[in-house]
Design goal:
This protein is of the alpha+beta class and 205 residues long. The chain folds into 2 domains: 145 residues, 2-Layer Sandwich (60s Ribosomal Protein L30, Chain: A), CATH 3.30.1330.130; 55 residues, no CATH class. It contains 9 helices and 9 strands. The longest helix is centred in the N-terminal third of the chain and has 16 residues.
């Protein structure tokens, strides 16, 4: 696959191209290749779980055509420039990660460039994939069916009453709960907002 159009696609919304975007594009191509795909497969067959957000994930998306909007790209933010590629038809999964010394290896492919950033910019475009990445077959801890779920499924949380989509509810003590009410969310509601919310709920009832 021609690398340059993919790099242009990745950098389109950034107004620049950076090493992590290039790394994401190359890793995306390597992940597809590990599952036997030369180009992105049709009909949402490929699911990618990426382990960080930012420029790297945009590069990966440019190579694979997987996006959050199409529910073919999931972000599990471990802060790592790595990703797991899953064939939803065969359930085969492979995790691709950069070689631990990939930055050091890059200098051999850009010997005239002493600046780290620009050495990586050049090297990541030409390095053989075998020198850039480790490839490991993995088994998912959660069934692929549970990860993908069924679109269009909707229920309401018995505590906050908010709608829960895609079978992400939790059944606990006979209640149907959203994950925030069941386990605690990444936010807490301020007192003024809580009072306003209670009044809205009372008016609704």
């Amino acid at each position: 696959m021609n690398l340059q159009p993919l790099l242009q696609k990745s950098s389109r919304d950034h107004d620049h191209l950076c090493p992590r975007q290039i790394l994401g594009v190359r890793l995306g191509l390597a992940g597809m290749n590990a599952l036997g795909f030369d180009v992105p497969p049709a009909k949402k067959r490929l699911l990618v779980i990426v382990e960080t957000d930012g420029c790297f994930s945009d590069g990966l998306s440019a190579a694979t055509d997987c996006t959050v909007g199409h529910r073919t790209l999931r972000v599990e933010d471990f802060g790592k420039t790595a990703a797991t590629f899953i064939d939803s038809q065969t359930n085969r999964a492979a995790r691709i990660a950069p070689a631990l010394d990939i930055r050091q290896r890059a200098y051999a492919y850009a010997p005239e460039e002493s600046r780290h950033y620009f050495a990586q910019m050049r090297a990541y475009q030409v390095m053989p994939a075998a020198e850039m990445f480790s490839v490991c077959d993995v088994t998912l801890n959660i069934p692929i069916e549970a990860i993908i779920s069924r679109a269009g499924m909707r229920v309401n949380c018995d505590i906050c009453s908010e709608e829960i989509m895609n079978e992400r509810e939790v059944h606990q003590d006979g209640l149907t709960l959203c994950r925030a009410c069941a386990h605690g969310g990444y936010y807490h509601v301020g007192q003024n907002s809580l009072l306003s919310y209670a009044l809205q709920q009372e008016a609704f009832l």
